[in-house]
Write a structure and sequence with these properties.
188 residues; 12% strand; globular; two-stranded antiparallel ribbon; 48% helix; alpha+beta; 4-stranded mixed β-sheet
């Protein structure tokens, strides 16, 4: 991907724990396919990127259902848009083929780890769709087909206002830098 606003995951490795998980990810990628079986390696890589930041790189976006849940105090969850398994597979493919080096991985990871607020039920539907009959590729996920096929549209999460009248923003790093053209097509 070539986005106008480069972001590098190393800029967000601001704790020893995060630096450790990033270092482990680099080791698992560099070891290549000869050290570990593919499934095992994919699991290690997925674990590293999940543990780096379990809430991913949040966008200020949510499905309509999640917006309703937020306003009524019901539960919401973060959907890793591109699936940790698909992301791990993609990293392995790009790294092992020589298309990407470690710097490329670090620049692309924030995009690959973006999250959107959804309801728990929607998150389940997205997971079933990814693993089920559709068997989406990472390219399908980049195009947001799993959201489109489920009829999910997106809205910007409204800011919270405290009792004192100050606006409190939810967790987000990027304010649109990581919103791809395919995600923008789902905005209402």
């Amino acid at each position: 991907t070539n986005y106008a606003h480069p972001v590098d995951i190393r800029d967000y490795a601001n704790t020893d724990r995060k630096r450790g998980w990033l270092n482990s990810l680099q080791i698992f990628l560099e070891q290549g396919p000869k050290t570990h079986r593919y499934i095992q390696r994919r699991g290690f890589i997925g674990s590293c990127i999940y543990r780096f930041s379990h809430h991913g790189f949040p966008l200020k976006l949510a499905t309509e259902g999640a917006i309703r849940n937020l306003s009524s105090g019901k539960r919401v969850t973060r959907d890793h848009i591109y699936s940790l398994n698909r992301t791990s597979e993609y990293l392995i493919k790009k790294y092992d083929s020589g298309q990407w080096n470690w710097d490329d991985v670090c620049r692309e990871l924030p995009y690959l780890l973006t999250t959107i607020l959804v309801t728990p039920q929607e998150n389940n539907r997205l997971g079933v769709a990814q693993r089920g009959g559709k068997n989406y590729t990472i390219e399908d996920l980049f195009e947001m087909k799993h959201y489109t096929d489920n009829g999910f549209m997106l809205r910007t999460i409204p800011p919270k206002v405290t009792r004192t009248g100050k606006i409190r923003r939810g967790p987000t790093y990027y304010d649109g830098k990581l919103v791809t053209p395919h995600i923008k097509k789902l905005l209402i």
